Amino acid sequence: MAPFSYNHTHPQDMWYVLTGIPGLEDSHTWISIRICSMYILAVMGNIFLIFLIVTERHLREPMYVFLSMLALSDVLLSTATAPKMLAIFWFHSMDISFGSCVSQMFFIHFLFAVESAILLAMAFDRYVAICHPLRYITILTFSATGKIGITAVVRSFII
């Protein structure tokens, strides 16, 4: 009886080929210039917003803390997607390993869930500010805001 040969490929050895935008290969350079400019604008704008909230003393309210968390998640989300797109368009680096693909998918889904949770926290902040304006400072303390932020990140990681 002949020995059975089993050719098993480990997920670590798998590579995927990304094609960019099929049919528009001639326009990849012009598309990538727009994507790069939007990426730079988004990163610079959000980092400026975070810097402004951190440096200004009167912007230490929960609303601005949640806004800075949202800006940070936007910076990380755009950084998780745009560099690989630009590598495909500019350097024709169309292959991606299984591990890189899975980690990029994890960060994209994780950061979308973080953004959703932060928007929920911002809605709760506005609810407390509108419905209980006299108790707003006692309900949303700095520690409560931090706990809400940590809960948003942990919830998104679990999801």
What does this structure look like?
Strands 1-2 form a two-stranded antiparallel sheet. The protein is elongated, with a radius of gyration of 22 Å. The chain has a single domain (27-158), classed as Rhodopsin 7-helix transmembrane proteins (Rhopdopsin 7-helix transmembrane proteins, Up-down Bundle), CATH 1.20.1070. By secondary structure, it is mainly alpha-helical. It has helices at residues 28-55, 62-91, 98-131, 136-139, 142-158; strands spanning 15-17, 95-97. The model has no long low-confidence stretch (mean pLDDT 87). It has five helices and two strands; from the N terminus they run βααβααα. The N and C termini lie far apart (49 Å).
Give a quick account of the main beta sheet: strands, pairing sense, barrel closure: 2 strands, antiparallel
Overall CATH architecture: Up-down Bundle
CATH class: Mainly Alpha
The mean pLDDT is 87
Number of helical segments with 4 or more residues = 5
- Number of beta strands: 2
Give the tally of structural domains: 1
Domain G-protein coupled receptors family 1 profile: 45-159
Function: Putative odorant or sperm cell receptor.
Keywords: G-protein coupled receptor, Membrane, Olfaction, Receptor, Sensory transduction, Transducer, Transmembrane, Transmembrane helix
Organism: Lynx pardinus
